[in-house]
């Protein structure tokens, strides 16, 4: 059959397109994105010797070695450094790790946020998935409280009368914290992983409520190793809500604006007092407290100090007002009335608000664990187990389990 000129031209065009497509596949590769993520703790004091791990992950592994050059930004005073400025991905591997380490200069007067960023990659198709990099908060060295003469006398009495040497658990104490999510929450809240492990340190001192008969401790910084995790979840419930509900709410948006919220300069700290050592090797650390509805529930009574919440309360006490958009109208409200009703930015509203003495979630495969704690000065250990949550019952389907294991000084 005779082929028409038009048909011949169409056939040649198809062959040409196929050839171009083949050449394109050979010469151009899919973008290999580089992701940076903090592994575990995202905050450190300037004197923290272990440093913080940042994991780099490729979208897919390569058949040959590849390198990524890194830099630090936001550290104007030179408080920290990278363990290495160039990271190598061996052939066939998708992950690599770099550490943020202190320069041990004790030069910070206020906290700073530093960012690990990608400068360049050895392969043309490798690019950072975000230009923001991985953020780490560096805080000034935490001060260990100086013990008073009366406290030193109590400590000596415990050693003589109770056989307890509290000096082994005072000061900066190492803690390994294991956070376990329930099956219904680990996908959305923990990247599909059952657990998250944080290595940190708490500063522990003798509580002002200690007596000669009863040793009582206070964790003045990073209680249970959870401080940065708590802050992360506070942000997750507020300004960094991934679903955008917080920022879309007119009241939350108005208060965020009027308080001049700025993540890079905001501060968050926590503490835990009244940790009582019992004669049988157990510890009391929970407290019965009034819930928002007037009922009594048991909590781990963490105290929080959040700069945004502090400023809002100061503005409320000064009688400040804020304008809220309500449809086509704008209505003026007292800040005091708004925070009384909605608790916006109040850490206690978002963090740890369910009863820890009984299962309030009632999940089919419950992740609840009853609170317990024990110490052993001979073994040099002190551990706490309890349930905790965040989000005021609007995010999690179940409790998360916390295990904080302290290693005493030798």
SSE map:
Layout: H1 5-27, E1 32-39, E2 43-45, E3 52-58, E4 66-73, E5 80-82, E6 86-89, E7 95-102, E8 112-121, E9 126-128, E10 134-139, H2 149-162, E11 171-180, H3 186-189, E12 195-206, E13 216-221, H4 227-237, H5 245-248, H6 250-258, E14 268-277, E15 283-284, E16 287-290, E17 296-299, E18 303-306, H7 307-317, E19 321-326, E20 329-334, H8 335-342, H9 347-350, E21 372-376, E22 381-388, E23 400-407
Parallel strand pairs: 1-9, 2-10
Antiparallel strand pairs: 1-3, 3-7, 4-6, 4-8, 5-7, 8-10, 11-12, 11-23, 12-13, 13-14, 14-15, 14-18, 16-17, 19-20, 21-22, 22-23
Helix pairs in contact: 7-8
Summarize this, please?
The chain has helices at residues 5-27, 149-162, 186-189, 227-237, 245-248, 250-258, 307-317, 335-342, 347-350, and strands at 32-39, 43-45, 52-58, 66-73, 80-82, 86-89, 95-102, 112-121, 126-128, 134-139, 171-180, 195-206, 216-221, 268-277, 283-284, 287-290, 296-299, 303-306, 321-326, 329-334, 372-376, 381-388, 400-407.
Task: Please tell me about this protein's structure.
It is a single chain. This protein has 410 residues and is of the alpha+beta class. It has helices spanning 5-27, 149-162, 186-189, 227-237, 245-248, 250-258, 307-317, 335-342, 347-350; strands at residues 32-39, 43-45, 52-58, 66-73, 80-82, 86-89, 95-102, 112-121, 126-128, 134-139, 171-180, 195-206, 216-221, 268-277, 283-284, 287-290, 296-299, 303-306, 321-326, 329-334, 372-376, 381-388, 400-407. The strands form five sheets. Strands 11, 12, 13, 14, 15, 18, 21, 22 and 23 form a nine-stranded antiparallel beta sheet that branches. A five-stranded mixed beta sheet has the order 5-7-3-1-9, with no helix packed on it. A five-stranded mixed beta sheet has the order 2-10-8-4-6, with no helix packed on it. The longest helix has 23 residues, at 5-27. The protein is globular, with a radius of gyration of 27 Å. The N and C termini lie far apart (96 Å). Mean pLDDT is 89; it is low at 1-28.
């Amino acid at each position: 059959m005779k082929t028409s000129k038009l048909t011949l031209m169409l056939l040649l065009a198809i062959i040409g397109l196929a050839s171009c497509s083949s050449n394109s596949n050979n010469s151009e590769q899919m973008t290999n994105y580089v992701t940076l993520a903090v592994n575990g703790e995202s905050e450190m004091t300037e004197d923290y010797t272990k440093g913080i791990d940042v994991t780099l992950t490729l979208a897919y592994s390569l058949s040959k070695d590849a390198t990524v050059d890194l830099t630090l930004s936001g550290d104007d005073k030179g408080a920290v450094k990278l363990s290495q400025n160039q990271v190598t991905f061996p052939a066939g591997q998708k992950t690599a790790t770099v550490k943020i380490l202190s320069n041990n200069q004790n030069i910070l007067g206020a906290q700073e946020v530093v960012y690990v960023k990608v400068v360049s990659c050895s392969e043309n198709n490798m690019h950072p998935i975000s230009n923001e990099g991985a953020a780490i908060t560096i805080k000034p060295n935490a001060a260990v409280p100086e013990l008073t003469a009366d406290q030193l006398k109590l400590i000596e009495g415990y050693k003589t009368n109770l056989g307890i040497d509290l000096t082994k658990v005072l000061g900066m104490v190492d803690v390994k914290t294991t956070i376990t999510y329930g099956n219904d929450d680990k996908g959305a809240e923990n990247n599909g992983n059952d657990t998250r492990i944080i290595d940190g340190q708490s500063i522990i001192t003798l509580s002002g409520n200690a007596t000669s008969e009863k040793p009582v401790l206070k964790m003045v910084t990073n209680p249970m190793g959870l401080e940065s995790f708590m802050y992360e979840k506070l942000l997750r419930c507020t300004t960094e809500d991934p679903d955008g509900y917080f920022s879309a709410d007119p009241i939350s948006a108005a208060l965020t604006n009027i308080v001049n919220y700025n993540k890079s300069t905001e501060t968050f700290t926590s503490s835990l007092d009244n940790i009582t050592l019992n004669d049988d090797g157990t510890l009391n650390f929970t407290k019965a407290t009034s819930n928002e509805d007037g009922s009594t529930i048991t909590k781990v009574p963490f105290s929080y100090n959040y700069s945004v919440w502090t400023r809002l309360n100061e503005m409320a006490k000064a009688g400040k007002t804020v304008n809220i958009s309500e449809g086509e109208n704008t209505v003026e409200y007292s800040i005091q009335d708004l925070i009384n009703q909605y608790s916006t930015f109040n850490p206690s509203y978002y963090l740890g608000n369910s009863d820890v003495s009984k299962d309030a979630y009632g999940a089919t495969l419950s992740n609840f664990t009853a609170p317990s704690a024990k110490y052993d000065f001979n073994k040099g250990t002190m551990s706490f187990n309890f349930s905790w949550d965040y989000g005021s019952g609007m995010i999690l389907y179940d409790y998360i389990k916390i295990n904080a294991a302290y290693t005493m000084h030798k």
